[in-house]
Amino acid sequence: MNGPVVCRLPRTHRIEVATSDARLAEIAPAWAALWQRAGGLVFQHPDWISAWWRTTPYQDRRGLRIGLVWSDERLVAVIALATFRRSGIRVLEWAAKDHCDYGDVLLAPDCDLQILRQLWQRILDDGGFDLVYLNRLLPDARFPALLGPAAPGGGTILQPNHRSEVSYRVAGAWQGGAQWFESQSKKARQNYRRGRKFMEEGGALRFRLMEAHEAREPVLERVAALKRLWLAKHGRVSDLFDEGSAALAALVSALAGLGLLRIFVLERENEIIAISINFEQHGTMMAFVTTYDPAFERASPGMVLMMDYIQWSLDRGLTTVDFLCGGEDFKRRFATHSVILSSVMGGRSLRGRLAVLADRARHATKSWRSEKTSKQAEPAEE
């Protein structure tokens, strides 16, 4: 019988798992340098993770697990994870999971994937969690390379999970925003013009990008207040917009510090009607938070603002507008492409493995009931 092949780290490499605030601050410069070399998204930048960690509620139920591989003094791999205790189970998930639309690892271009597997095994060996659940994986994510049988020692076997999400994008060969606008349906163009006309009845309407020197605090307070209204109306919650929370400001400051922040507003006589907090990376405009004043709902201010910033982006040579996670109708209406984001799950302890089995059973039961209901709804053959 063939035994497993064990690959050792090169002598110049060492593995570390950072768990403290102090160490998170110490490794930030090396981490930022790796992020730059690897072409990572902002969700994997140390400033983003640090902003989340400083402001996240229930820190007594959380713990950092930042996996690192060093080559001498150079950082070559990072897996930014954290634990969270819910319903008596300790779950290992992406750090800043609730504010990361795309999760993945950071890997230097010249780094061997085998090193990443050994880093993962070290995280498993250190333990401190029962269950692993990692979601929002893009089709080209590096992390799925860790799927499959565990390394020697009985680590977690990660398997694809049934949960998935969708990301909608606008991408095409338009020669600027005007051409994109004319490619929309007649109804969409009419709705845009009607919305603007309705809002202009009370004063001059203006779409603009906020300048870097403008004070962001009043705008962010407006965003949070409007989002709280929307969340209450739809029976949802998000600690990002809780009154008195510093989370939104911290994340936006991280975007601004990296030079990625783009805040678009729709104003009437200096009154903000709609806001979209976006960021620009890799030739793509990404929409992080969008909201609008419900007093103007009849005019669809969110739709008007979206069409304005899509045109703005295309006029400046960006190739894609990414609405990030979420299958909302307003995103699907304008999207030309969609991407399915996958997830993986695995149990480390007995409790974790039982939780995985229970999750699969619930999903199988739900699927069976849904299929049964669908068949019962089919018309009988004559």
Automatic annotation (TrEMBL):
| Listed InterPro entries | Acyl_CoA_acyltransferase (IPR016181), BioF2-like_GNAT_dom (IPR038740)
Instruction: Tell me which residues make up the BioF2-like acetyltransferase domain.
Output: 186-332
Pfam families cross-referenced by the UniProt entry = Acetyltransf_6
In its UniProt entry, what is this protein called?
Answer: GNAT family N-acetyltransferase
